[in-house]
């Protein structure tokens, strides 16, 4: 068995630090991009009945307002989590009722945000169509 020398120990320490740094970096990237699929589902699923130009504009607005949208999704997810934990036995109806109200508020906030962005997308595409016909 070979003895560890100072250069080998130093190389091992640098290697371990590099592995640790890469793990933290990957965790940060995955955490940051974790909500992106939810946003694309919102953009495509709920708005598939609209013309392509409206959907394209809506997706652009979602990207511009990503921080607001992700925050609204987080609040809804947290409210649902609170409702699930409040629903544990023994049943405490007051806590469950409050948690249900919080879920309704978070859902309403997300819906208002999405509808506001949709209205903005409709206005922008209408202006674009009007300028194309002139």
Low-confidence segments, ≥5 residues, pLDDT <50? none
Tell me the series of helices and strands, N- to C-terminal: HHHHH
Largest sheet: none
Roughly how many Å is the radius of gyration? Answer: 24 Å
The mean pLDDT is 81
- The assigned structural class equals mainly alpha
Report the total helices.
Answer: 5
Distance between the termini: 84 Å
- Which percent range describes the beta-strand content? under 5%
Oligomeric state of shown chains: single chain
Helix content: over 70%
Overall geometry comes to flat
The count of strands amounts to 0
Characterise the protein shown here.
The chain has 134 residues and is mostly helical. 84% of the residues lie in helices and 0% in strands. The chain has 5 helices and no strands. Helix 2 runs antiparallel to helix 3, helix 3 packs across helix 5 and helix 4 packs antiparallel against helix 5. The longest helix is centred in the C-terminal third of the chain and has 41 residues. It is flat. The model has no long low-confidence stretch (mean pLDDT 81).
Q: Concise description?
A:
This protein has 134 residues and is an all-alpha fold.
Compile the SSE list and pairings.
Blueprint (H helix, E strand, L loop, with lengths): L5 H28 L2 H10 L6 H13 L1 H21 L6 H41 L1
Output the keywords.
5 helices; mainly alpha; 84% helix; flat; 134 residues
């Amino acid at each position: 068995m070979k003895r560890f020398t100072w250069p080998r120990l130093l190389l091992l320490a640098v290697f371990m630090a590099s592995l640790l740094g890469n793990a933290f970096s990957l965790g940060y990237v995955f955490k940051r991009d974790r909500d992106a699929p939810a946003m694309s589902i919102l953009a495509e699923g709920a708005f598939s009945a609209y013309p392509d130009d409206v959907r394209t504009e809506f997706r652009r607005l979602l990207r511009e307002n990503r921080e607001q949208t992700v925050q609204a999704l987080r609040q809804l997810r947290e409210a649902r989590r609170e409702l699930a934990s409040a629903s544990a036995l023994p049943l405490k109806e007051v806590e469950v009722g409050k948690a249900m109200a919080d879920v309704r508020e978070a859902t309403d906030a997300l819906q208002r945000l999405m509808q506001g962005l949709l209205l903005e997308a409709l206005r922008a595409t209408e202006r674009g169509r009007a300028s194309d016909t002139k």
